[in-house]
Design a protein that fits this description.
This protein is an alpha+beta fold. 36% of the residues lie in helices and 24% in strands. The longest helix is centred in the C-terminal third of the chain and has 51 residues.
């Protein structure tokens, strides 16, 4: 009996462990970091959120935004002369010298591979003249990207009380940066040789601070009940960060087939590489539990509707937006139902792209998405007059006069006329024949009468 009980509990434990490993939900308690987020790179859809809008210190993840501004405004072969201020930056640096000349490309590798604060400062001053002016441009660019809860006061992320961001904002910045090919190359570079300059000989090569990218096999972490290498082959970026005030920070991205996710974890101070364990937990959660589904594409024809009180005038209705969404794997997409809901009492005038209804997509009788229905073209007052005046004109699908239609009418009229003439002719002939018969009968009657009289 005791043996059976022990066996039962062992099996129960294995089942529970399996459920945890392959769970289709992720609880915020599963993530040690103070804040975190996981988004789909294509749509920007949030798949996991742990205080993603809480203001946090971003440390060197700040350098993503610095890189975006430089890449969008400068050629890689431009030469930067190092200013007098940048060599004295604190934290990680490659010890640039005042007056040293490096290309924008070389400084970008130092910025994103080595996470050099001196390179960040040099690029900012080269672009804007001062750190303050560059910070103002950073904030403007952040708002343009959609990072509305951030404020940047420097290009490198060294601590300042008023320099902050959020996990969600950093995910948006990383997603935006990944649209740039050079940005993708830089954040996925494992090592780089800084070439010699006129003031310094060639330095030793620098290595990426992101342990997901080709880290030493000595770096291990506990993950799903096993001790595994931190290195993760599907990860191809993006940026690490650390200050005492910010804790360990990491923006990561990984892709399998056509699915790419971006994760952000901020202030991770857990033991045994908790920063990377949290990041991998988020990325794997996306790959294991979600599928991409395209509901509809913008401009897809829905149907044609007749306008009230407008004669024969109709308007084509089309989808007003494209809609793609990540759905959990347990949703059978073939069972998603589509319902077209058109506004009642549609009448002219109608503007082009005017919303005239919506398409509802539901699963198990629960709406999971909705897309507006819009008019494909405008129906104006002039259109009404023209259509009213020529409402008898039949047009084909190309909006041209339908000649076949009218030839058919003419043919039918001609046949009708011929039949009519045949009928009239037949009736006339019958009447003439009858008159002739009557006349013949009368004449014979008169002759017989005369013969009797004699």
């Amino acid at each position: 009996m005791l043996k059976r009980t022990i066996t039962f509990f062992i099996l129960l434990t294995l089942i529970l462990m399996s459920t945890l490993v392959f769970a289709d939900t992720l609880d915020i308690s599963d993530i040690e970091s103070e804040t975190a987020v996981l988004i789909d790179e294509l749509t920007g859809q949030v798949l996991f959120d742990k205080d993603m809008n809480k203001k946090m210190y971003p440390a060197s993840t700040t350098k993503m935004l610095t890189a975006i501004i430089i890449l969008e405004n400068h050629a890689l072969d431009e030469i930067v002369t190092i200013d007098e201020f940048s060599p004295f930056m604190k934290g990680k640096k490659v010890y640039l010298l005042e007056g040293e000349r490096l290309s924008v490309e070389q400084l970008m590798y130092i910025l994103l591979v080595e996470s050099g604060n001196d390179a960040a400062s040099a690029l900012a001053i080269y672009h804007s003249g001062t750190i303050e002016a560059f910070a103002a441009e950073m904030n403007a660019k952040a708002k343009e990207i959609g990072a509305m809860n951030s404020n940047f006061t420097n290009p490198h992320g060294l601590h300042e009380d008023n320099h902050y961001s959020t996990a969600y904002d950093l995910a948006l910045i990383g997603r935006y940066g990944f649209q740039n090919e050079m940005f993708r190359t830089l954040v996925n570079t494992k090592s780089y040789n800084i070439p010699a300059t006129e003031l310094q000989d060639e330095r030793n090569y620098i290595r990426n601070t992101n342990r997901f990218l080709g880290a030493s096999s000595a770096y291990k972490m506990d993950y799903r009940g096993k001790t595994i290498p931190v290195k993760y082959d599907i990860v191809d970026g993006i940026k690490t960060g650390y200050t005492p005030e910010a804790g360990n920070c990491l923006v990561s991205t990984a892709k399998i087939n056509n699915q790419r996710y971006i994760s952000v974890v901020l202030n991770s101070n857990g033991s045994n590489n908790g920063l990377y364990r949290d990041s991998r937990t988020l990325l794997d959660y996306g790959f294991e539990n979600y599928q991409r589904h395209q509901f509809i594409t913008e401009g897809t024809f829905i149907q044609t509707v007749q306008l009230e009180g407008a004669g024969n005038i109709t308007v084509n209705l089309v989808a007003g937006d494209s809609k793609t969404k990540m759905l959990q794997n347990n949703i059978n997409v073939s069972e998603i139902k589509r319902e077209v809901l058109i506004d009642q009492g549609l009448s002219a005038p109608i503007a082009e792209n005017q919303v005239l209804g919506r398409i509802s997509f539901s699963y198990n009788n629960i709406e999971i998405e909705s897309v507006p229905i819009v008019s494909e073209y405008a129906i104006t007052g002039d259109s009404l007059i023209t259509e009213s005046e020529f409402s008898l004109i039949k047009k084909d699908e190309n909006n041209q006069v339908d000649l076949k239609y009218y030839l058919g009418i003419i043919f039918k009229l001609l046949i009708s006329f011929i039949i009519y003439r045949i009928i009239i002719t037949t009736i006339t002939l019958r009447k003439r024949k009858k008159r002739l018969q009557n006349s013949y009968s009368k004449s014979h009657s008169d002759i017989n009468f005369s013969e009797d009289s004699n």
